[in-house]
Amino acid sequence: SHLSTSVLLSSDTRREGKPEYIFLDVNVNGTHILVSVCYRAPRLGFIAEFEQALIDLMARYSHVVVMGDFNTDLLGPDTYDKQYLTTLFHSCNMSVLPLQATHHTATAETWLDIAAVSDPTNVAHHGQLPAPGLSRHDLIFCTYKLLPPKTQPKIIQFRNFKKINYEALVADAYTLPWQEVYLMDEVETMVLKFNSIITRLFDYHSPLVTKRVTKKPAPWISDAIRQLQKQRDSSFRKAKRTKCVQDWNVYKRLRNQTQQQIRNAKVRFYYRSLAKQQSTKTLWAKLKDLGIGKSAQDIPIPINLNTINDHFVNIPVDLTGARDYVTELENIPCCGSEDRFSFTPVTEADVLGAIMRMTSNAVGVDKIPIRFIKDTLPITLPIITAIFNKSLMSSVFPEIWKSALVRPLPKIPSPQTPSDFRPISILPALSKCLERIVHQQFSSYLEHNHLISNFQSGFRTNHSTTTALLKITDDIRQAMDEKKATLLTLFDFSKAFDCVHHPLLFIKLKRVGFSHGCVDWVKSYLTARQQCVRTGDQNSSWRAVTRGVPQGSVLGPLLFSLYIDDVTTVISHSHFHLYADDLQIYQRFFPNDMTECVSSMISDIDAIAKWAYRHGLKLNETKTQTMVVGYSRLLTKIDFNTAPKLRLNNHELEYSDKVKNLGLIMTKHLGWTHQTVLTCNRVFAGIHSLKRFALFLPLNVKIMLVKTLILPHFNYCDIVVNDMTVELSDRLQRAQNYCIKFIFNSRRSDHVTPLYQQLSLMKLKELRDYHTLVLLHSIITFKSPRYLSENFLFMSDISERYTRRGASILSIPHHRTSFFNKSFTVTACRLWNALPDNIRNLGLRSRFRAGVVGLLRDRRV
């Protein structure tokens, strides 16, 4: 092996009170590793200088190893130094390798010496060795492997659509007996006849091909390189036989020359291939071939597929309460709400819209990809419309559309049990088109008649996790403004979508006004369903699905929202919010009133638990979390050692210091340190996965990949955390700068501001202001979501004293402290009022966005 090192950066040893460190570039056969060693003296101020150097340098490396004595005990209490050190490595997407105590004295055993790596899967083994004759510290080591895993062969089936003569396809399509579909009496036979005809058409023009795929031949390997490989192999055999130093030198020269030729050829091939003008779909296909954006479905599954399928289907839930509740409701007459909604006939325009919105190429059990439909739309559109109308009018959902192929997606890198997999269902394409049309009719009726709770934010237009969290965090900030704490409880339902009790759902549909025909159609849609697990060329046995709403369906989430909606009617004392099956309740209270607050919330928790039992849903006591939120001085007034605890099904809930709420990590002080670490971790992980392909990527492709895969991590709920500290904001900004430097392969010392201008990209503070204004514009325009829109009032609506200008000026809510001053409501009002009149009065969302972008750009200049 060839190994060389060079020093990239080292600390100035003449300065006192600073950490000592060195950064090396280690070259192993052309693979570069960033290796750093650091020493932080005891009681030394912490290592921001080292952190900045690490972030700047690691942007150009796929492999990073940091080792050193940081004089911070990772086995000890959570001191500021310990939190800073662990946060540093986590935010850089580096893993600290576990060790025992590495420093030994007569009175203490401490873990001071640390080894951290960018990819722990590359660590073959690591550990520590005592060195009693040298130091009180153990020697720490790790063995780092660089060999890529071997590609496993697999069986694939495909149709080569590129070879289709579309003129001949359409001409043949017109000659087929499509009229036979109309002659069928039942929708089931209509679908079978339609499938038979269209499959026959494509079997002739693009037959299904089965192929065993191993490692693809490298297209960049030329005849000249193959000849060079032969010479290298021949020289290796000769050197091994003669054991002559000169022959070994000849072999090494040919080996290095061959590796360099292959590397250069590969770079040229992909660079030219990706730089060409092409569709986004073609570009992503080439990127996946390179290894970017690959899914985890190729991970070997060491468990019997039938076992996995049984785990997905057989959910242990007690349905006694749900059955009793159904019997109870059947004996209570409806109050005049029946038959207010019936299906309206489907038009060809409806069907065309649903088909064109289908983007997935996944093929269901009927083996009819959406490509078949889109390529024959002039002929098949009226036939599909007739099938859909027949289904709705006869209240029958075709049997073949009720079978799902399930792909087990690993949740972790090395899955060992069925619970380590997540089911991803693949349904027939046409069934999802019909579901989309039904969803449109259902949701229009429910929204128009306000039949879904205002505080349900899941799967609704103009609602999102961001709007839900803005409502909750603004309520918490308002409580702080009033010197109140907030008791927050987040419930966890176990596999709620899979536990819907069908008879109870049907009763609920009747009670919100669905006609008998609509309810019968939903019955047909949900009953007699089945699924099998498929991976590669292997299938499990089919299993009946007797409960729940279909995974991966369009209609399922809406039906579940209806099913869970009336849980809000049993909550008497607490504020509440729903996002699909994520339910949370909260109460605001003065510290002296915590006992009364806990008592009233226990009453609501008991009511929710009873509701869940009567609906066949299981609350997971161990995953349900509770937290008291408030500023530091407020929480010190509460003695949590003696404070009463909440209970769920006789299980005591411990008060948490932080919770994960709809993907956002909230702390008891409403701080965002942990969320910032999570965001930085994801950003560095994303860049790390791209770095090994950097040489192959033209600038425009790099920009596209970073904007598509990396920068959205900064955007998630960014306006919720708008009140983060300057320190956290700077840390996020450094992570964004890291992304920009990766795009341009910039040096550590290069300024990033010109690069932002070149990309027409906003920095994070500007981006948060932009997102705040765009959301507020939507809230004002659509008066939705209602729980946010009611907080914004124009000055002209409050007092007649204000002129026409006041018609577009928002009233800033009264507040006493900086806590609510940093809320979304106040921040959004200030930003809105600071806009020029001509931008505030732009009605169209696209024009408003363009106006705000232009304003921010002008201010930057």
Number of strands: 25
**Rg (CA only):** 31 Å
Task: Please tally the helical runs, counting DSSP H or I stretches of 4 or more residues.
Answer: 32
Which structural category fits the helices and strands?
alpha+beta
Anisotropy-based shape? globular
Poorly predicted parts? none
Which percent range fits the helix content? Answer: 40-55%
Instruction: Report the β-strand fraction as a percent range.
Output: 15-25%
Organism: Graphocephala atropunctata
Pfam family, one: RVT_1
Protein name: Reverse transcriptase domain-containing protein
GO molecular function, one term: catalytic activity
Verbal overview:
The structure is a single chain. The protein has 861 residues and is an alpha+beta fold. The chain has 4 domains: 3-144, Deoxyribonuclease I, Chain A; 223-275; 317-329 and 449-531 and 539-670, no CATH class; 673-860, no CATH class. The chain has a 6-stranded mixed β-sheet, with helices on one face. The chain is globular and about 90 Å long.
Set down the secondary structure blueprint:
Elements (H helix, E strand, L loop, with lengths): L2 E8 L9 E9 L2 E9 L8 H11 L4 E7 L10 H12 L3 E2 L6 E2 L4 E2 L2 E5 L5 E7 L9 E6 L9 E6 L6 H9 L4 H4 L4 H19 L2 E6 L9 H20 L2 H31 L4 H11 L14 H9 L6 H11 L17 H9 L13 H6 L1 H18 L8 E8 L10 E6 L2 H20 L16 H17 L3 E6 L11 H10 L4 H11 L2 E7 L2 E2 L3 E3 L10 H9 L10 E5 L2 E8 L4 H21 L10 E5 L2 H4 L10 E3 L2 E3 L4 E4 L2 E4 L5 H19 L7 H12 L1 H4 L10 H19 L8 H7 L4 H19 L3 H4 L5 H4 L19 H4 L2 H10 L3 H4 L4 H16 L1
Parallel strand pairs: 3-4, 13-16
Antiparallel strand pairs: 1-2, 2-3, 4-8, 5-8, 6-7, 9-10, 11-12, 13-14, 15-20, 15-21, 16-17, 16-18, 19-20, 22-23, 24-25
Organism: Graphocephala atropunctata
GO molecular function, one term: catalytic activity
Protein name: Reverse transcriptase domain-containing protein
